[in-house]
Write a structure and sequence with these properties.
Helix content is about 30%, strand content about 20%. It has 9 helices and 7 strands, in the order H-H-E-H-E-H-E-H-E-H-E-H-E-H-H-E. It has about 240 residues and is α/β, with parallel strands linked by helices. The structure holds S-adenosylmethionine (SAM).
Length: about 240
Amino acid sequence: MFDVSAPKFFGRRKGRTIRKAKTFLLENFLQKIAIDENTVFDKSKLFGIIPSEVHLEIGFGDGGHLAALSEKKKNIGFIGIEVFQNGVANLLSLITGIKAAENETENPSILSTRTDNVRVYPEDARLLFAKIPDGFIDKIYLLFPDPWPKKRHEDRRFVNPENLKELARILKKGGILQIATDHKVYKRHVLHIMHECPDFKWTAKTFADWRNEPEDWVQTKYQKKAVREGRKPVFFEYERL
Ligand SMILES: C[S@@+](CC[C@H](N)C(=O)[O-])C[C@H]1O[C@@H](n2cnc3c(N)ncnc32)[C@H](O)[C@@H]1O
């Protein structure tokens, strides 16, 4: 699936230096809400709440979308996956309210209620799929995935038959896969690959259904950047058949 220069799975990726408060969160708080090999995928045990639905965000980036949604929809359990450590640290900062600038040397107190409906997998998404039971997830967000626009990197695109098989398995029937992109190559790629996939149906009935932001949408960091740079994002919604 990957070329020889790419690792089969991504390891945790570290970017710019992480501020002290965020390092504190990664070292002391992440474990409280992280999904690991001991996690039991039982809806009544996975979160601090019994969720009405479980939503999964793959590659949440800086966590802004996930943090805002989990605040708005407190009865939904959110699983966020991100391999980039700075992004995980940023999400933790957003959901605990602990910012890099404050109390860098003290042990900050954590607002547990704000995190009851969020769980985080800080590794490659593909390593988690096998642990998630069939039909466990109600909605999947794949927002502005890396486009890998060059033909020779096509196999690295997250939307591919192998990953779709797993996404279809973990999504309940009638569940939603939401894919957003601003890249023209990726737009065509998604339309082509999803058209070939027998497990999903494109829900759009009109042009506006995929050209405009869905109702109640929270913009992501990459979406804002794309708009600033003059690109028009599209929003594909697929229903699990
Ligand atoms: C282009 S960024 C978009 C981030 C965010 N969704 C947004 O719209 O702002 C893609 C993100 O997906 C993450 N990612 C890519 N492949 C992944 C994988 N296999 N597992 C987990 N995260 C992944 C990257 O680390 C990166 O943060």
